[in-house]
């Protein structure tokens, strides 16, 4: 499926409200708030104003750049997200690493080695037969730090098999710490941006808390090679560095298992305290609550110029419907309601804000959580701040 419908996202919101209290409001109030999604934005759209950075954007969207292998990047154009286009079309999903040559030649005979006392190889045919829809999940590269767009961020719909189902074929969790998932990297050439060695250790607790799965399909079609085919690991809520592509082996490891080279490489970008030597000391690479603008619309409302900021919110441990926004370091924080209230934090949700700047100039648009108890390590550093130049007020 190339797009997630408004109806489906509203259904998720309603279901979430019916199942638990969302910051206090009753179900009736939540249902009443849904109408904001169907209310057209105020005024006449005159055009969009580009979000800028300190340097002109040089990299294109939707095509590989940067070099071969581990140096390959393909960025998603977040400005194209709408309420009818919440799932990223497959050709536009970001790519962080190109397909290794060996994968393309061996894909037709691929199997996953299960390393354990009672394990046997896991053929791809068995995985494909057992695969079920797993829903829409957001993937973000831990190195998603380009102020031009933050385009190493996408949402896709996946189908696969829970990793827990496969891992338990290896033996009892009582005698092990967790599961090591190993994939393939291109080791034939030296990369400028990364280190070869694709593997990650997941503790047993993560298999039930994060619900990781082995994906074989994406957006209703077989998984493309560049996104990890024949099979990749998906770990909802964790940074993409843990979503091992081209999975070749799954094995149990004990409590003294070392952190893998990939875990060490991404320790800083996943907010670790140094570089933990043992996997058990590696904090879960969770994506904190985050938000950023994706486009600025210029509108004429009752004869006057105003602006509509459209953005996304994602990450965290639960859906969040309240944010704060400001347009300058000296500005006061203003409340922003995400509407309709998100029913899931597995994907992103859209928000918008009507803005009437008082004078021309360049503004920095920053966001933070309205609830100070929510962890927002990157937002605290103004990581996802975007800039816009306003000429007409």
How many angstroms does the end-to-end distance come to?
A: 41 Å
Radius of gyration: 22 Å
Tell me the structural class.
alpha+beta
Q: Please tell me the overall pLDDT.
A: 88
H-E string = HHHEEHEEHEEHEEHEEEEHEEEEEEHE
Number of distinct helices: 9
Helix content range of the residues, please?
10-25%
Unreliable residue runs? 1-35
User: Strands of the biggest beta sheet: in what spatial order?
Assistant: 2-19-18-15-16
Q: Major sheet, described briefly? A: 5 strands, antiparallel
Strand content: 25-35%
What's the count of strands? 19
Characterize the overall form.
Answer: elongated
What are the defining features of this structure?
single chain, 393 residues, alpha+beta, five-stranded antiparallel beta sheet, five-stranded mixed beta sheet, 19 strands, elongated, disordered N terminus
Describe this structure in words.
The protein is of the alpha+beta class and 393 residues long. Helices cover 15% and strands 29% of the residues. The chain contains nine helices and 19 strands. It has helices spanning 6-19, 27-33, 35-38, 101-106, 124-130, 163-167, 204-209, 261-265, 377-380; strands spanning 44-49, 51-52, 111-115, 122-123, 132-140, 153-162, 178-182, 199-203, 213-218, 221-222, 232-234, 249-253, 290-301, 304-314, 322-326, 334-337, 349-355, 361-369, 386-390. It has a five-stranded antiparallel β-sheet with strand order 2-19-18-15-16, with no helix packed on it. A five-stranded mixed β-sheet has the order 4-3-12-7-8. The chain is elongated and about 75 Å long.
